[in-house]
Amino acid sequence: MKRIYMDHSATTPTDPQVVDAMLPYFTEMFGNSSSLHSFGREAAEALSTARQQVAECIGALPEEIIFTSGGTESDNMALRGIVPYDSGKKHIITSVIEHPAVLNTCAFLESMGHEVTYVPVNTDGVVDIDKLEVSIRDNTVLISIMHANNEVGTIQPIREIAGIAKKNGVYFHTDAVQSVGKIPVNVDELGVDMLSISSHKIHGPKGAGALYVRKGTVIRPIVFGGNHEKGMRSGTENIPGIVGFGRAMTLAKQRLDEDSARMQQMRDSLISRVFDSISHVRLNGHPTQRLPNNVNLSFKYAEGESMLMLLDIKGIAVSTGSACSSKSLKASHVLSSLNIEDDYLHGSLRISLGRENTMEEIDYLVEVLQETILKLRAMSPLSGQ
Ligand SMILES: *Cc1c(COP(=O)(O)O)cnc(C)c1O
């Protein structure tokens, strides 16, 4: 059976061009970039090229890029790195719909005695800017709001929030892991001080990523050792991974207009056909301010994990916003904060498209979805059908 992958917000296949770029760095050019001999110099050169590639793609300077192991570490570095160790209780503002890499880091900082405000979102998943602004205090050191949400795809008004942060003398970080490669990401246009990127979400290898840190933004390292990355992130660099990440960034930038137009076309076709052919369905997230590759639907009288499993049997890989444990159904923290009617909360599917998906695959998905929903509703005691 042909398998169809539509879970690109979870991870993406590595582009063959990226793999080609990486391969020599496992074998002939395996050097440690800190070594002074020719092997080391090759690695150092590869590192420098990748740094330029990543910087250029987001309008940054190479020296503003710190390579990390991915989005999670970048988020940790931004939040834990900006809070001084020694000068009392600090305050961070974030949103209720952030990725666990931000939320759990905030929980850790709270356990260390710092304070965090979690700003709510409206029913479309857009951060409440008025509430955000009034929550700024004298000891606020950072506002961290994600560029685009990984579950419902809502794009936040980052420029506006960054402006508020700047006006109040507070640093601003954005998790751009989902937005890079799908919408334009430029650090000056967004007005951000720090920005997280992950390689494996943009057809690069897993285990690589970066934190952009604007010149003049003082953060402290969270990993100590041999002073790699100018002391900001010690540890022998993952050269093949970083080379692949640099190549993936360049490819994503080159293909951005074409890829996002194609994905958006498939997205909109999928949404309109589902609404035309299936009753009791809602679209989660903002109707227009959303990622071109994200479709998050909720179906009444159908449970998320059952739909996921039935689609998987038909070779289609998607994800759901509710996890079915033995007794209780727990909806994701993102869906729960959108104020969705209870009836719709547990029947959600996230379909995240990628550059290799086709309109024929959308046709097949719509067909399978119709059958699946009919089947589940026929078994549901609530549906009355
Ligand atoms: C996937 C993801 C991360 C984590 O990135 P990793 O590279 O897997 O650590 C962080 N934030 C968002 C929004 C993500 O989608």
Describe the structure.
By secondary structure, the protein is of the alpha/beta class. The protein has 2 domains: 4-11 and 256-379, Aspartate Aminotransferase, domain 1 (Alpha-Beta Complex); 16-251, Type I PLP-dependent aspartate aminotransferase-like (Major domain) (Aspartate Aminotransferase, domain 2, 3-Layer(aba) Sandwich). Helices cover 39% and strands 15% of the residues. It has 12 helices and 14 strands. The strands form 4 sheets. The protein has a 7-stranded mixed β-sheet, sandwiched between helices. A 3-stranded antiparallel β-sheet has the order 9-10-14. Strand 6, helix 7 and strand 7 (194-198) form a beta-alpha-beta unit. Helix 2 (38-58) runs parallel beside helix 8 (239-277), helix 8 packs across helix 12 (359-379) and helix 9 (304-313) packs across helix 12. It is globular, with a radius of gyration of 22 Å. The two termini are 32 Å apart. The model has no long low-confidence stretch (mean pLDDT 95). Bound molecules: pyridoxal-5'-phosphate.
